[in-house]
Amino acid sequence: xxxxxxxxxxxxxxxxxxxxxxxxxxxxxxxxxxxxxxxxxxxxxxxxxxxxxxxxxxxxxxxxxxxxxxxxxxxxxxxxxxxxxxxxxxxxxxxxxxxxxxxxxxxxxxxxxxxxxxxxxxxxxxxxxxxxxxxxxxxxxxxxxxxxxxxxxxxxxxxxxxxxxxxxxxxxxxxxxxxxxxxxxxxxxxxxxxxxxxxxxxxxxxxxxxxxxxxxxxxxxxxxxxxxxxxxxxxxxxxxxxxxxxxxxxxxxxxxxxxxxxxxxxxxxxxxxxxxxxxxxxxxxxxxxxxxxxxxxxxxxxx
Length: 303
Ligand SMILES: [Zn+2]
Description:
It is a single chain. By secondary structure, the protein is α+β, with helices and mostly antiparallel strands. The protein has three domains: about 5-35, no CATH class; about 50-225, no CATH class; about 245-303, no CATH class. Helices cover about 40% and strands about 15% of the residues. It is built from twelve helices and twelve strands. The strands form five sheets. The chain has a three-stranded antiparallel sheet. The longest helix is centred in the C-terminal third of the chain and has 23 residues, at about 210-235. It starts with a helix and ends in a 6-residue tail after the last helix.
C-alpha cells in the first residue's frame, strides 16, 4: 500500500488520532489504526507462514508430515523418523540448539504418543506442499491452524475442539468425569474442556499447536515437574537408588551364603526362561525409563 505524504506526516505524529485523507471520495476520515495497517499485514504474512509450517511440517526434520506422526505433551507434531533421528543425534551431542529448544524435554519415545490423524481427501495432489495433509474426521475441515484442535491423549485421535464439544455434549453440568472419544469410543477425562484454566501437561486433552503463550506456560510446567522429580531422587525418596540397584557381593564363607546363592541362581533362571515379549528387546527398551538410552539408540542392547 502506497501511503500518501499527508498520511505519512500523521503517522510520525504520535498525538494525531485521525487524519483527513483527501481522496477521490471527497475527504473520508481515516483512523490512525487504519493507517498502520501496512505493518500489520506484513506481520500477518509471517504468521501465516509459521502457521502453515506448524500444520504441514515435522517440527524437527522440517519434512512434510507423513504417518506415523507423533505428538508430544506440548502439542507439537513430528514425523516418527524425524524424532528418532533427533534423539540419536542428541545422544551423540550433535543436535542443534534450536532442535533442543523444540524437543529438549523429550527423554525418549515414551514422552510422545502416536497421533491418529485423518488424511485429507485424495483429491489433493500428494506433492502439493501447500495443501494441509490432515482433516478433522468430525467436521472434515482441514487442520490449518485457523481453529483449535485437540489430541485426546488416551487414544491419540486428533479432532477439532468444536467437533469434540458438539459430538460429546461436554458441558459444565456433565455429571460424568469422562466422555467417550467420538471416533473410537476410548474414554478420556474431559475436565480440560470444561474448566477455563490454562492447559495442563498431564491432561487427557492436549491442544495441538497451541498459541505460543500457552506453550510457554506448559514448558514451564514441564521444567517444574522435572525439578520436583530430581529433588525426590536426590533426597532418596523410597530408598537410595544406587544401593538398591547394586547387588551386595556375597562372602561364600558367611552364614546363609549358600541359600542366598541358590535363591539368586533361581531368580536368574526364571528371568532367562521368561516368555518373550511382544516387541523385540530393542523396541521395548525405547519405551523404558532406562538410564542407558545412548546404548539403546545405538542399538547396542539389541543383541
Ligand atoms: Zn479416539
